[in-house]
Design goal:
The chain is an alpha+beta fold and about 280 residues long. It has helices at about 1-25, 80-85, 125-130, 195-210; strands spanning about 30-35, 55-60, 65-70, 135-145, 150, 155-160, 165-175, 180-185, 230-235, 255-260, 265-270, 275-280. It starts with a helix and ends with a strand.
Amino acid sequence: MRFYKIILIIIIQSSLVMTEEALELKEYQIELIIFKHLNVETDEIFDDNLITPSDDVLSFYEPKLQINKKSFDVKVEENFFNKLFTSLKPLNIKNIMINKEDVSSNISNPKSWYRKNNNLETLNKLNKKLLKNNNYEVLDSFSWVQNIEDKESAVYLHHEVIEKQYGFLLKLYRSRFLHTDLKAYLGSINLSSNDITKFHIKEYENRLLEFPNNNNTNNNIKINLNKANEFIDINSEMPIQNNQKSINGEIKLFIDQNKRIFNNEIHYFDHPYFGVVISVKEI
């Protein structure tokens, strides 16, 4: 009987560990460079066509920025307190010592995911060398932050720039090790998949709120607002939309490779006509 109790305890503990791992939202800094070979030396004929997935995809986006409409209705009236505080100077925060232990850097922020930017850290030197080398043409280089899910839950990130005639579908996922599934191509495709970026981010925001160890939530606090706030959009809705018309056609020049990768390493994907370099680093 005691033996069965021990087995039961082990099973319960294992299930708790798996639940914690499932809710653990690790963030990764992804950097990518895609470039063309200007001096192509090959007689190879590419007959195969790129087969694109029909599943839902993610994309880069810019979050919606809003201003509270009521802020325009605020009227400052001259009174005793206004005159009283005019002589006060703002507090100089540079002179305040902040304890680093009080600032949590391990809290994931899904709203910061899939925001494309030009900041490169790991691939910065390589990018500069490629730009100076007459044998290559850098089509693009950028970075972004995202989480990496298990294989069953992971979704492709799709990005295409029609004016530069390149694109890629990238899926990063976890099994026993980290893996990357890359479908990069020269040209453009008419992808008919649904973009679920907004819903994907919202799902993980809800996970953070529901996670019991999240210090940012307090179920005992209730806030009653007098009136609902009204907001005015000051930029475009996410995700970023490309206004140029897609050029439909068969993609002959492409990379379709799935391989195991490691954290804090640089990974190169090669083709006779172009190449892709990817860096994955846990934040």
